[in-house]
Amino acid sequence: MPTLAPGRPENLTPAEEKKLQEFWSLTLKSFGVLDGPVAWSLPPPPPIYNHSEALAAAAAANKSNNGTNGTTHGATNGDSPKKKTSRFGFLSRGGGSKDEEEEQKRKREEEEKKSLEEKERIASLPPQTPEELRFQFWSMVKCDDPDALLLRFLRARKWDAEKALEMMMKTMSWRGRVMDVATVVKEGEGVPFRRGAEDAGFMHQLIAGKSYLHGTDIDGRPVCWVTAGLHFAKDQTERDIQRFTIYTMETARLMLRSPVDTACVVFDMSDFSINNMDYAPVRFMIDCFEAHYPESLGVCCIHKAPWVFQGIWNIVKAWLDPVVASKIHFTTSTKDLTRFIPSHQIPKNIGGTEDWTYSYSPKPPAEIPDGVKDHEDRYTVNTAENIASLAKLEAERRQQVERYEELTREWIKGAAEKKEQRTKVAKELEKGYWGLDKYIRGRGIYDRTGVIGANGEINFYPNKK
Asked: Would you say 419 and 411 are in contact if contact means Cβ atoms under 8 Å apart?
């Protein structure tokens, strides 16, 4: 039975609660609402990266360059897509181990440079306004307990409230201005699927089953299974991988229920070869867990890694924060893996006894017809009725947020009796989110197969009686 880990809203020590109050004080101050309520302003400006514009630019460039209908998976930051070359072309040249080591070193340095440049780019963005910070924060909360979300950043920064605020502000800028998380979530699977060839890189990862969410581990955590042998860098752009990673992580967030607030990740390396290695998505995933989804990884299993992975691991582990590194375990057999996941919850193709195999079925409906009646994404279409319904729900949520902020201000000032009321409003926010969900999140395979219910109910094994 899952147990509640320390430092959660339900079991804070007096010292930890004081730190949480300090963090809330800094947070509300950054929103401009510490001294009292402030009227909501319009949503923030569009993010720097616009995926629709990038797709259009990529399609135009592709047509201009070769005059054919060849598949182009998109571009990064609106640039024309670059021709892809093998990340391990040196292998075909018959190079020896020294050549391999030099190429690995070059790739490592290249990824470290890119990561540093990205962090510097984010840091150089104009400061977010208080209105933008407030909007992004409450958009990020979703169905979470607001205290639980703040505590993730606070624990990640060892209970230093100022450092936690700095980390959270960078995450809000990353979500809104850099990655446009809201659009990735709203488009879901249906929009990329209906785009066809121009967005094939995103869909390829879903259809192939490169990474999917299924079942739970021994502690009740949702499990993300990653089939490393299915990855080839040429099949999608780096941006496609980033969007797919965010889509998967945001979906997994919806599956967390207290006391379970972390996930399990299993990298199935049984068919992995050097041709599958791609440092960019590994680095991106590490940055996600360490910087933008803190305290979300419960355990990570690297299963049946071949000898060739040893040199790669020496590079990857140098990028890891010690806390994250401590959660990574190598398993060499099914018996090893059952220390973390019961055998009957490990699919047969990975060595367990569960009679289940990932299949991307049923697929999204092909088109949204006029009237959008009965279509799974009918609520995310900008019809007059949907716009009015969403506006009403958002107004109700803003009222709940204002009430929560008011109670938080009083609680910070020492009104301990407001704690129970804050908890009640947090539950109302959670319930209210699921009314909004169908308007702001495109449906996907986990909705169609019954893992995620219409009102937020979760069934990790919908096919089991």
From this structure: yes
List CB contacts of 372: < 8 A, sequence separation 6 or more: 378, 381, 383
Is cis: bond before 130, omega within 30 of 0? no
> Residue 300: enclosing H or E segment and its boundaries?
strand 297-303
Extract the tokens encoding 177: 């201005």
Q: Are the beta carbons of 206 and 50 closer than 8 angstroms?
A: no
Contacts of 442 (CB under 8 A, 6+ apart): 185, 186, 187, 188, 189, 190, 191, 377, 380
Provide the token pair at 233. 């860098």
End-to-end CA distance of the chain: 21
**Predicted TM-score (pTM) of this structure:** 0.85
Instruction: Provide the 3-class DSSP secondary structure of residue 134.
Output: helix
HEC assignment per residue over 22-38? HHHHHHHHHHCCCCCCC
Instruction: Return left, alpha or beta for 361; rule: phi > 0 is left, psi -120 to 50 is alpha, else beta.
Output: beta
Contacts of 283 (CB under 8 A, 6+ apart): 111, 114, 115, 319
d(CA 104, CA 109): 9
Q: Which residues does 273 contact at the CB level (< 8 Å), separation at least 6? A: 229, 306, 308
Integer Cα distance of 137 and 316 in angstroms: 31
Going residue by residue through the chain, which has 465 residues, state the pLDDT in tens, using 9 for 90 and above.
Answer: 788 999 999 999 999 999 999 999 999 999 999 999 998 876 655 555 555 555 555 555 545 544 433 333 333 333 333 333 333 332 333 334 667 667 666 766 776 677 677 767 666 667 889 999 999 999 999 999 999 999 999 999 999 999 999 999 999 999 998 999 999 999 999 999 988 888 999 999 999 999 999 999 999 999 999 999 999 999 999 999 999 999 999 999 999 999 999 999 999 999 999 999 999 999 999 999 999 999 999 999 999 999 999 989 999 999 999 999 999 999 999 999 999 999 999 999 999 999 999 999 888 876 665 555 667 788 888 888 999 999 999 999 999 999 999 999 999 999 989 999 999 999 999 999 999 999 999 999 999 999 999 999 999 999 886
Cα 407 to Cα 33: distance, rounded to the nearest angstrom: 12
Count CB atoms within 10 A of the CB of residue 402: 16
SS3 content of the chain, % helix, strand, coil (to 5): 55, 5, 35
**What secondary structure does DSSP assign to 222-259, as a single string?**
EEEEEEGGG--GGGS-HHHHHHHHHHHHHHHHHT--TT
Closest CA to 168 of 271, 48, 295: 295
Compute how many other C-beta atoms are within 10 angstroms of the C-beta atom of residue 118: 15
Specify the amino acid at residue 276: N
